[in-house]
Amino acid sequence: MLTVDGRQGPYLPGLNLRDLADAMIELGAHNALNRDGGGSSTMLAREPGTTGLKVVNTPSDGGERPIPNGLALYAPQGSGRLVGFNVDTHDKRVFPGMTRRMTVRGYDETFGPATNNEHVTRATGGWAIGDTFHAAPQPGPASFTAFRGSTAKTEKLTVLGKLSRIAPASSRISLGMNEQKPLQINGFDARSFSAKIERADLDLSYDRQIVEVTADLQIRALRPGATTIKAGAQGKETQVAVTVGVQDEPIATFENDVPQWTFGSARATGSVSAELNGHTATGLKPSYDFTRSTGTRTAYAVPPKPLQVNGQPLSLAAWVHGSGKGEWTAFTVKDASGQSRSLYGPYITRNGWKQLEVAVPPELKFPVEVTRFTAIETKADRSYQGEVIVDDITARVPPPVALPPAPELRDDVIGQASGWKFAVMSDARFVARNPDSDLVRSARRTLREIKASGAEFVVINGDLVDEASPEDLKLARRVLTEELGDFPWYCVPGNHEIMGPGTIDNFRREFGATHRTFDHKGTRFVLLDSSTETLRGGGFEQMEMLRNALRTAEGQAVVMMHHPRRDPSPARTSQLADRMEAACFERLLSERDKPTAFTGGHVGGFFASTVDGVPHVVNGNSGKAPAEQGGFTGWTLVGVTKNNIKAEIRPHVDSLHVQAPANLRFGSPEKVAATLKQGARTLPVKYPMSAVWAGSPGLHVGDSSGVRPWHVAWLDPVAGLLTAIRPGQITISVTVNGVTRSTGVRVSPV
Q: Where does the Phosphodiester glycosidase domain start and stop, copy by copy (predicted)?
């Protein structure tokens, strides 16, 4: 029996009958009967040793569809005599000195529950006490075995490295009355391999009048209010904000101010007007013409003044009357720091009224205000005129709670490039109709800096152009040829390489293959096409290419595509669209037993993290303005050695300045810092920017272990502190992206 998930997105369409026939032939079938398709495709099964059923596929409706018939296979009544064990756990990784709860179910010849489930357990790499595995103090492979007589089953486990930090799966959890939700605390070792932490290994403190946490880590609501769960494990700590109860607060009812709302658009025209037949009374009707372009078109309604939202909202909601044309929806909000973000909602796929809801990330700086409501069409082959009616915009607001601060993590992959080097740039986003724009000049500047950097080639990792017209792509080739000459380069498509035409054809005509592999000095490079915000959209053959390239590479592998698997920014909208596909991709990288790294773009900022031992580097914008306040433009120089990479983040530098005291006294370390300018932006030189601090012979730069008697002063570049050692004169210098500035400091006698 085979169940195939139905259509779940533009590039997850399920299988047609011919595809299904091919799949059945591959499975060895001579005859096959197709029962049904689409959202009705559901398979339920029971695990050995159980009687309950659970859904084992992913129905395209998001859950089980009520249908009147199905095909059921029943096993006969079993004898209840033990023939085997099913040994399972919710996480096969565990930290040294911690525990993992195991589930052991005996089953009979029909896989039904054994009448007698008595068993004994043993373990390697730790100890078995009942159905709990206790990990040894050292990392390595482990196993847990359940047996009775000659019947046994072993589950393989892994003891990770020493616990380095802990973090919740969600930093904010909201409960309704009489509701419960899971609390998941994850641990990470030094290489960012992760595992869930059991309740027995956690120290928890919280207001027990508001919630209770059960032995299986379920948070159960007791009464309305808020509390912070403080969790600790092996000396590491983290926090989770928990609220009970919620109120829907109206923020726009359109009773009196519809004439003051205004219309805006990109690649579209339209208007806003009052609709007397709203959801409750008068509503707002944006009308738009999406026939004027094949690029992404937006139509948005702007309130006369921003809509203020109190508290720390969980979500924004609106009643929307649509005609099923498939428009994508979004609210734009501005947080307390002045940062604007688009919060994307569902597609309008049905006729009539439906309430849409959009989650508000807890990482935003509250309070927030709503500045527009937007309808979006991204598909080039969809051309239409449309309208929606919007009414009763509300915010779902829980009781106030102190939200945990986001931890400031620094990843070791950021550092000075060593070994042989290659460069990465992305997101210039220029168009041919303005060939001398600041965006083109920034792209040219980036290419010149790369050519002079010592890199052996450059990968343009998506969104070099904005609209992907033939003229845009010809200008892109001209810029590359004029600035790089015979310097090697590779071009990876991003979503803006299909923005206008909606297909990759223009890119392919100008630049050839959209995905490829090549080897350079023993390192395998895999360049992928994520222009549709998925990997499947680039063709199944590139998934096969990725698997084969990772399997056959003898040494290190570097995988590159425009979209990262995870968006590190609060809105989390700039990432692979299909989260199942993203998890599969991440698993492919982490399961490889040789050094592997990933580089992406698209987010609009420079970030780095390590996931299950795989460094992930996100290159920021090389032309377009940065997405985040305090962000910068630039590129990345990557150094490659035998077993790892180092990403040297190189911002564009218009000018560079060093701030240090002219006179330094004993006993009072003083701050040393640097700032750079990019046009009108003045930015501190700090992580993740790469900077080299140096100075005259009398200055020690580094940690305190390198201080010697002849040193005049010691500079700790991480803390930014300068400490006097003995009287004298020193010079401090900093170099950022090839630009160096210096200043003198005198250490005065006591």
A: 1-73
Q: Using 50 as the pLDDT threshold, list the residues of the chain that sit under it.
A: none
- φ, ψ of residue 468 to 5 degrees: the values are 65, 30
Do 270 and 287 contact (CB within 8 A), yes or no? yes
Q: CA 401 to CA 119: how far, in whole Å?
A: 47
Task: Decide if 368 contacts 333 (C-beta within 8 A).
Answer: yes
* Residue 70, pLDDT score: 86
The Cα-based distances of 560 to 3, 519, 534 in angstroms read 33, 13, 13
141 Ramachandran zone, left/alpha/beta (phi>0; psi -120 to 50): beta
Q: What is the pLDDT of residue 354?
A: 94
End-to-end CA distance of the chain: 86
One-letter amino acid at 492 equals V
Amino acid code (one letter) for 225: G
Confirm if 582 and 534 have CB atoms less than 8 A apart.
Answer: no
| 3-class DSSP string for 62-75 | CCCCCCCCCCCCCC
As beta bridge partners, residue 271 has 287
Residues 6+ apart with CB under 8 A from 66: none
* Residue 541 identity: E
Determine the Cα–Cα distance for residues 98 and 96; give it in Å rounded to an integer. 6
Q: Degrees (nearest 5) of the Cα angle 661, 664, 670?
A: 65
Grouping H, G, I as helix, E, B as strand and the rest as coil, residue 182 is: strand
Q: Residues 102, 89: contact at Cβ < 8 Å?
A: yes
Instruction: Please state, in angstroms and as integers, the Cα–Cα distance from residue 152 to each residue in 158, 639, 748, following that order.
Output: 20, 49, 76
Residue 301 neighbours by CB under 8 Å, 6+ apart: 261, 262, 263, 264, 272, 284, 286, 372, 373, 374, 390
Tell me the residue ranges of DSSP E strands in 495-582.
516-520, 523-527, 557-560
- Report the greatest alpha carbon distance in the chain: 95
One-letter amino acid at 600 equals G
- Residue 157: what pLDDT? 98
- CA–CA separation, 365 and 173 (whole Å): 17
- Name the packing angle between helices 579-590 and 540-552 (round to 10°): 20
Give dist(CA 323, CA 272) in Å, integer. 17
| Separation CA 378–CA 327 (nearest Å) | 9
Q: What's the whole-model pTM score? A: 0.90
Tell me which DSSP letter residue 624 carries: S
Beta strands 236-244 and 172-175, pairing class: parallel
- The residues that bridge with 557 in the sheet, in sequence order, are 524, 596
Sheet strands (E) in 462-556: 489-492, 516-520, 523-527
614: part of which helix (H) or strand (E)? strand 614-618
CA dist list (Å): 256 to 276, 285, 400: 12, 14, 30
Residue found under tokens 């990725």: 546
321, 319, 283, 285: which is closest to 301 by C-alpha?
285
Contact 98, 197 (CB under 8 A): yes
Place of tokens 């997405």: 627
Q: What is the pLDDT of residue 749?
A: 82
The single-letter code of the amino acid at 743 is T
CA distance 263 to 265: 7
Tokens at 204, concatenated:
């928890």
3-state secondary structure of 584: helix
pLDDT tens readout for residues 267-284: 999 999 999 999 999 999
Residues of the chain by 3-state class (helix, strand, coil), percent to 5? 10, 40, 50
Distance CA 452, CA 421 (A): 12
What is the Cα–Cα distance from 458 to 381, expressed in whole angstroms?
Answer: 33
Instruction: Give 151-180 as a DSSP string.
Output: EEEEEEEEE-S---EEEES-SEEEE-TT-E
- The token duo for 422 is 């290659």
The helix (run of H) or strand (run of E) holding residue 656 is strand 655-659
Provide the pLDDT for residue 407. Answer: 84
pLDDT at 11: 56
Cα dist from 745 to 322, 664, 715, whole Å: 68, 7, 12
